[in-house]
Amino acid sequence: MTGLRNAALLLAMVTTGLMAGLFAGFAYAVMPGLSRVDDRAFVASMRAINAAILNGWFALCFGGALIGTLAAVLLHLPADRRGPLPWLLAALLLYGLVLVVTIAVNVPLNDRLAAADRLADPARLRVMFEGSWVRWNVVRAVLNTAALGCLGWALLVARPVTG
Residue 104 and residue 90: Cα distance in Å, rounded? Predict the structure, then answer.
């Protein structure tokens, strides 16, 4: 059972870390870079990025963070294994908030941008999309990074103490 607990925690950490890195990378590199291009290039780039990101690797990381963290929580429920449980629950809550923001804000914005008429004014589309998407992506990056920190702390609490 220890191996399964460790595997779940490792899966949670790796996938949560990859998601935190993705959201943070958008926050400190991709979106600031795209802020420097004209409206037409911005809209075309975001449409292309939003289409390309829907792939198996993204799904594995996005879902793996939730599944791995939930599995780690469940596997640490027995009374003798509860030391890391508060940190695991915090990580699960924080990642749950990431999912809520993604589903409630970022995905609908992506969908609106994708569904907009190709002949629509790029400046209008950008105004509708960019500010809100960037703000809420920063929220996702912070929440996801905090979830990763909680998982790291849970790993430290869970490890056996050796003399």
Answer: 21
